[in-house]
Structures are given as C-alpha cells and as structure tokens.
Design a protein that fits this description.
- Helix content is 74%, strand content 0%.
- It has 87 residues and is mainly alpha-helical.
- The longest helix has 43 residues, at 9-51.
Length: 87
C-alpha cells in the first residue's frame, strides 16, 4: 500500500529529521528524569535498610563502601585530589 504523503522526498526527509530530534529529546529526558527517579528510590531503599542495621553490619557496610571507593579510584582516570583540581 503506497501512502502519497511519503512519496514526496522532502516530506520524507523532514519526517526523518523530526524523528531524529524527537529521539534525542526522549533520550535526554530519560537520562535526566528517569535516572534521577531511579537514583532517588535507590537512595531511599538504602537509607531505609541502614536505619535499622545492627552496628556490626553498619561497620561491615562502611568497610565495603570504603573498599569500593578505593577500587573505583584505582581504575578511574580522574585527577586524585581532595578539593578538586588545582587552578
């Protein structure tokens, strides 16, 4: 079935451009809003668990987080400073 709207190359090109822009906006919105929502719920879940943890479990959790931070810093290519890069 041929649709006369898509027979015009200029219309086809404009639709393709519009779709590309819409896709970019969708991805941008997903990154800014959806990921923020996921992060917010994840933080809330962790805070809820930590609130009722026994002290020995809190200590082990703190050790694990320190170790994860140490590993991340070893494999990251960023500048290792406390207060940010020197200016």
């Amino acid at each position: 079935m041929n649709d006369p709207i898509f027979e015009d190359e200029e219309v086809r090109r404009r639709i393709a451009e519009t779709l590309i822009v819409a896709e970019g906006e969708f991805i941008n919105q997903l990154q800014t809003q959806a990921f923020d929502e996921i992060r917010k719920y994840s933080i809330s879940d962790i805070e809820g668990m930590v609130e009722f943890m026994p002290k020995p479990d809190l200590a082990r959790t703190a050790e694990a987080l320190i170790e994860l931070t140490s590993i991340k810093r070893r494999v990251s290519a960023g500048v290792e400073t406390v207060g940010g890069p020197w200016t």
